Amino acid sequence: MTVSLPLVFDAPRRGMPPRHLADLDAEGRRAAIEELGLPKFRADQIARQYYGRLQADPAQMTDLPAPVREKIGEALFPPLMSVVKHVACDAGETRKTLWRAGDGTLLESVLMRYPDRATLCISSQAGCGMACPFCATGQGGLNRNLSTAEIVDQVRAAAAAMRDGEVAGGPGRLSNIVFMGMGEPLANYKRVVAAVRRITSPPPDGFGISQRNVVVSTVGLAPAIRKLADEDLSVTLAVSLHTPDDELRDTLVPVNNRWPVAEVLDAARYYADKSGRRVSIEYALIRDINDQGWRADMLGQKLHKALGSRVHVNVIPLNPTPGSKWDASPKPVEAEFVRRVNAQGVPCTVRDTRGQEIAAACGQLAAEG
Ligand code: SAH
């Protein structure tokens, strides 16, 4: 089968918003402050407002003199995106937010509160170019990359919502971030890595969320996985494998035609070696497509060989997308699949599926407006 691979790494800034504070690292923001003719110490003061107090509106930064607020507002806080709507479910513990960026681009993030943590699922691109046939986002193609600030500001808004008690259960703290919303994070590599640094550095450079609580999920762009390993981050890598054999994976995850299973697992192993972290394998279980017992055995064997004990399989019951001919596997089939992967010495569990009735579950994030 021949597929054209829409692999545009770090495409040009088409539709990108103007520069925002959250696009800049410490050095960059100091340079920007100097360009404005302001004293250097203002740079960290502003960053503390944004990352520490989660304040994105310079008018509210009352520790700054009014003329400074105006100046930095124009130069470093262009409007990034506005809320189109919030939709809640799971007794208010899951909340999806639809955002509209400055150029009209729509994107989504989903906040999920659990007894012991609060996880935000964020988008790294508007749309996605990877064309996986079971994923709603994949059907619409890639609109554009998100800027670092557009990624980071999804986190700021959710952290503020948790702090302010906007999610059922009272005030709390945003603790976990997963790059499992719209887009392929490693196809927007530089901006995503910059966003990871902003998310995980302590204030004034970032929100101070533990790297161990951040998951970057990829279809398996092997060279980009290796590059990420060399960044010396300790974020968790999740690989959307979905089947252990190339024949089926070529259709489920079309980029497999370019980087087949063996290469993806090699890269995952390199990531595990460099980071010391377990790699997470995502497996959307699809009835009569990839749920056979022999596939479970093969999955367990291949993963055990490639990654030893440094791997965990997350089975995700397929969320049928509108018009899809595919469905989730029956529960007994799912249980047998999980049992057989575990039997190969590879830990395997079924992921809970939050947000189903608000189209906020895995692979359903195709903004409808
Ligand atoms: N592009 C990245 C991250 C976004 S999707 C990636 O592919 O990993 C996050 C996870 O949801 C991926 O494992 C993806 O395969 C899975 N997913 C997408 N559509 C789904 C669906 N309809 N049902 C279940 N899981 C789905």
Automatic annotation (TrEMBL):
Cofactor: [4Fe-4S] cluster
SUPFAM superfamilies: Radical SAM enzymes
Domain Radical SAM core span(s) in chain numbering: 114-357
UniProt GO BP: methylation
Binding site for [4Fe-4S] cluster: C128, C132, C135
Localisation: Cytoplasm
Active site: E108, C362
Gene Ontology MF terms in the entry: methyltransferase activity
Coiled coil feature spans: none
Matching PROSITE patterns: RADICAL_SAM (PS51918)
Cofactor binding remark: Binds 1 [4Fe-4S] cluster. The cluster is coordinated with 3 cysteines and an exchangeable S-adenosyl-L-methionine.
Highest rank taxon of the organism: Bacteria
Pfam families in the record: Radical_SAM, RlmN_N
Other remarks in the entry: Reaction proceeds by a ping-pong mechanism involving intermediate methylation of a conserved cysteine residue.
Role summary: Specifically methylates position 2 of adenine 2503 in 23S rRNA and position 2 of adenine 37 in tRNAs.
Name this polypeptide is given: Probable dual-specificity RNA methyltransferase RlmN
Taxonomic classification: Bacteria, Bacillati, Actinomycetota, Actinomycetes, Mycobacteriales
